[in-house]
Fold this sequence. Notes:
With about 150 residues, this protein is mostly helical. The protein is built from 7 helices and 2 strands, in the order H-H-H-H-H-H-E-E-H. Among the domains are: about 15-55, no CATH class; about 75-115.
Amino acid sequence: MYIVSNLCVERLDEKAVRGMEKWSKSTTLSAYILYGEQCLAQCTIFRWYQCYEALRVKIKDLPCPGQEHVVTNSARISAVDELIRQNRRITTREIAVELSISKRTVHHIIHKKLGYEKCCAQWVPKHLSENQKTVRMGVCLLVQSLGSF
Protein backbone atom coordinates (compact mmCIF):
# COMPACT_ATOMS: atom_id res chain seq x y z
CA MET A 1 0.00 0.00 0.00
CA TYR A 2 1.50 3.35 -1.06
CA ILE A 3 0.14 6.64 0.21
CA VAL A 4 0.57 9.71 -1.98
CA SER A 5 1.48 12.94 -0.21
CA ASN A 6 0.95 16.60 -0.83
CA LEU A 7 1.09 17.37 2.89
CA CYS A 8 3.55 19.80 4.39
CA VAL A 9 6.43 18.10 6.18
CA GLU A 10 5.76 20.05 9.37
CA ARG A 11 2.38 18.37 9.90
CA LEU A 12 3.81 14.97 10.67
CA ASP A 13 5.91 16.19 13.54
CA GLU A 14 7.80 14.56 16.37
CA LYS A 15 4.70 14.20 18.54
CA ALA A 16 2.92 12.29 15.80
CA VAL A 17 5.87 9.95 15.34
CA ARG A 18 6.05 9.36 19.09
CA GLY A 19 2.32 8.68 19.09
CA MET A 20 2.85 6.12 16.35
CA GLU A 21 5.31 4.24 18.55
CA LYS A 22 2.37 2.29 19.93
CA TRP A 23 1.55 1.01 16.46
CA SER A 24 5.08 0.26 15.28
CA LYS A 25 3.93 -2.50 12.96
CA SER A 26 1.34 -0.34 11.29
CA THR A 27 3.03 3.05 11.15
CA THR A 28 1.70 3.86 7.71
CA LEU A 29 -1.81 2.91 8.68
CA SER A 30 -1.55 5.06 11.80
CA ALA A 31 -0.41 8.06 9.78
CA TYR A 32 -3.22 7.45 7.32
CA ILE A 33 -5.72 7.38 10.18
CA LEU A 34 -4.26 10.57 11.69
CA TYR A 35 -4.01 12.62 8.49
CA GLY A 36 -6.39 11.01 6.02
CA GLU A 37 -5.93 11.41 2.28
CA GLN A 38 -3.16 13.99 2.67
CA CYS A 39 -0.67 11.63 4.26
CA LEU A 40 3.05 11.38 3.55
CA ALA A 41 4.51 8.64 1.39
CA GLN A 42 5.10 5.29 3.04
CA CYS A 43 8.88 5.44 2.51
CA THR A 44 9.04 8.86 4.20
CA ILE A 45 7.10 7.59 7.18
CA PHE A 46 9.37 4.54 7.45
CA ARG A 47 12.49 6.72 7.25
CA TRP A 48 11.18 9.06 9.96
CA TYR A 49 10.20 6.16 12.15
CA GLN A 50 13.63 4.57 11.76
CA CYS A 51 15.21 7.87 12.81
CA TYR A 52 12.97 7.94 15.84
CA GLU A 53 13.82 4.35 16.71
CA ALA A 54 17.53 5.18 16.48
CA LEU A 55 16.90 7.78 19.24
CA ARG A 56 17.44 10.67 16.93
CA VAL A 57 15.80 13.55 18.76
CA LYS A 58 15.31 16.00 15.90
CA ILE A 59 13.09 14.71 13.13
CA LYS A 60 13.84 17.45 10.63
CA ASP A 61 15.71 17.57 7.37
CA LEU A 62 19.47 17.26 7.62
CA PRO A 63 21.48 20.05 6.03
CA CYS A 64 21.87 19.52 2.31
CA PRO A 65 25.38 19.16 0.92
CA GLY A 66 26.76 21.85 -1.31
CA GLN A 67 27.85 25.43 -1.09
CA GLU A 68 26.50 27.38 1.85
CA HIS A 69 24.58 30.55 1.15
CA VAL A 70 26.77 33.12 2.87
CA VAL A 71 25.91 36.48 1.42
CA THR A 72 26.06 38.67 4.51
CA ASN A 73 29.81 38.66 5.03
CA SER A 74 31.75 41.69 6.25
CA ALA A 75 32.79 42.71 2.73
CA ARG A 76 29.15 42.86 1.56
CA ILE A 77 28.08 44.72 4.68
CA SER A 78 30.80 47.34 4.23
CA ALA A 79 29.95 47.64 0.51
CA VAL A 80 26.28 48.29 1.33
CA ASP A 81 27.29 50.79 4.02
CA GLU A 82 29.59 52.59 1.58
CA LEU A 83 26.83 52.83 -1.05
CA ILE A 84 24.42 54.26 1.52
CA ARG A 85 26.98 56.79 2.77
CA GLN A 86 27.60 57.94 -0.82
CA ASN A 87 23.90 58.37 -1.59
CA ARG A 88 21.41 58.40 1.29
CA ARG A 89 18.50 58.25 -1.18
CA ILE A 90 19.60 54.99 -2.82
CA THR A 91 16.97 52.25 -2.88
CA THR A 92 17.34 48.63 -1.87
CA ARG A 93 16.66 47.62 -5.47
CA GLU A 94 19.55 49.76 -6.74
CA ILE A 95 21.89 48.32 -4.10
CA ALA A 96 20.80 44.78 -4.97
CA VAL A 97 21.46 45.35 -8.68
CA GLU A 98 24.83 46.97 -8.08
CA LEU A 99 26.10 44.27 -5.70
CA SER A 100 24.32 41.36 -7.45
CA ILE A 101 22.52 40.15 -4.33
CA SER A 102 18.83 39.77 -3.56
CA LYS A 103 16.67 42.62 -2.28
CA ARG A 104 15.82 40.52 0.76
CA THR A 105 19.51 40.18 1.64
CA VAL A 106 20.04 43.92 1.14
CA HIS A 107 17.07 44.62 3.39
CA HIS A 108 18.50 42.28 6.05
CA ILE A 109 21.93 43.94 5.91
CA ILE A 110 20.51 47.47 6.05
CA HIS A 111 18.04 46.92 8.87
CA LYS A 112 19.59 44.14 10.98
CA LYS A 113 23.34 44.47 10.46
CA LEU A 114 23.79 48.22 9.88
CA GLY A 115 20.77 49.46 11.83
CA TYR A 116 19.52 51.98 9.26
CA GLU A 117 15.94 53.13 8.83
CA LYS A 118 14.28 54.94 5.96
CA CYS A 119 13.15 58.43 7.01
CA CYS A 120 11.92 61.01 4.48
CA ALA A 121 13.31 58.91 1.61
CA GLN A 122 16.79 58.86 3.18
CA TRP A 123 18.65 56.14 5.05
CA VAL A 124 19.46 57.30 8.57
CA PRO A 125 21.17 55.35 11.34
CA LYS A 126 18.78 53.95 13.93
CA HIS A 127 21.34 54.60 16.68
CA LEU A 128 23.86 57.39 17.12
CA SER A 129 27.37 56.86 15.83
CA GLU A 130 30.36 57.20 18.17
CA ASN A 131 31.09 60.69 16.78
CA GLN A 132 27.53 61.81 17.41
CA LYS A 133 27.63 60.40 20.94
CA THR A 134 30.83 62.30 21.84
CA VAL A 135 29.48 65.56 20.37
CA ARG A 136 26.23 65.12 22.30
CA MET A 137 28.16 64.40 25.51
CA GLY A 138 30.28 67.52 24.99
CA VAL A 139 27.19 69.68 24.49
CA CYS A 140 25.56 68.22 27.61
CA LEU A 141 28.67 68.88 29.71
CA LEU A 142 28.85 72.43 28.35
CA VAL A 143 25.20 73.09 29.18
CA GLN A 144 25.68 71.57 32.63
CA SER A 145 28.71 73.76 33.36
CA LEU A 146 26.88 76.89 32.14
CA GLY A 147 23.87 76.03 34.30
CA SER A 148 25.94 75.90 37.49
CA PHE A 149 26.85 79.63 37.38
